[in-house]
Amino acid sequence: MKKILFTFFLCLFAVAYSQVNPNDTIRVEHHPKDSVSVEKNNTKTEAKVVSDLENANGPTRKTLKLNPTKAGLYSAVLPGLGQVYNKKYWKVPIVLGAVGAGVGIAVWNDTQYKKYREYYIAKLNGNSK
After folding, report:
1. Kind and range of the H or E run holding 128
2. Other residues' Cβ atoms within 10 Å of the Cβ of residue 107
3. Are 67 and 73 in contact (CB under 8 A)?
4. Are the beta carbons of 70 and 85 closer than 8 angstroms?
5. Element (H, E) at 21
6. Measured between alpha carbons, how far apart are the two ends of the chain, in Å?
7. d(CA 84, CA 95)
8. C-alpha R_g of the chain
9. pLDDT in tens, the chain (129 residues)
10. Alpha-carbon 70 to chain mean position
11. What are the residues whose beta carbons fall under 8 Å from the beta carbon of 73, sequence distance 6 or more?
12. pTM of the shown model
């Protein structure tokens, strides 16, 4: 009974004191101002902004809008062809290596199966090779 009462009061105090907010010990009287100044008269046009960006970052170029459905269909026809379509040529050997590893494992398993199957049949017939 003592254990039950102890557990009950422990849970009661945990619930009662879990919502207590301690006083904040750090008082900030003066909040620092933002260090970035805001321009009052921002009269830059869109062309001016683009030219400023080109000067800062180099020439901008149009991005190609590639169709993910088309890339998926290309990959379904020939693995790795979708990566060529997306111009991610470095991924093609990874895709082909993964496909080649899968095919290699399947061929190895097939030869192992045939070898052990022939041995099992020979053992059942009483002929040990």
Report:
1. none
2. 10
3. no
4. yes
5. none
6. 76
7. 11
8. 36
9. 888 888 988 887 777 776 656 555 566 566 556 555 555 666 777 788 778 777 777 665 666 688 899 999 999 999 999 999 988 899 999 999 999 999 999 999 999 999 999 999 999 998 865
10. 22
11. 82
12. 0.45
Residue 65, both tokens: 């809008």
Alpha helix (H) residue ranges in 1-129: 2-17, 46-57, 68-77, 81-85, 92-125
Integer Cα distance of 108 and 127 in angstroms: 25
Long-range contacts (CB closer than 8 Å, 24 or more residues apart) made by 79-88? none
- Report how far residue 20's alpha carbon sits from residue 39's, in angstroms, rounded to the nearest whole number: 45
* 3-class DSSP state of 117: helix
Q: Which tokens hold the place of 100? A: 């080649």
* 74 close to 81: Cβ distance less than 8 angstroms: yes
Cα–Cα distance measured from residue 39 to residue 17, given in angstroms and rounded to the nearest whole number: 50
**Token duo for residue 59:** 């020439």
Structure tokens at 47: 């062309």
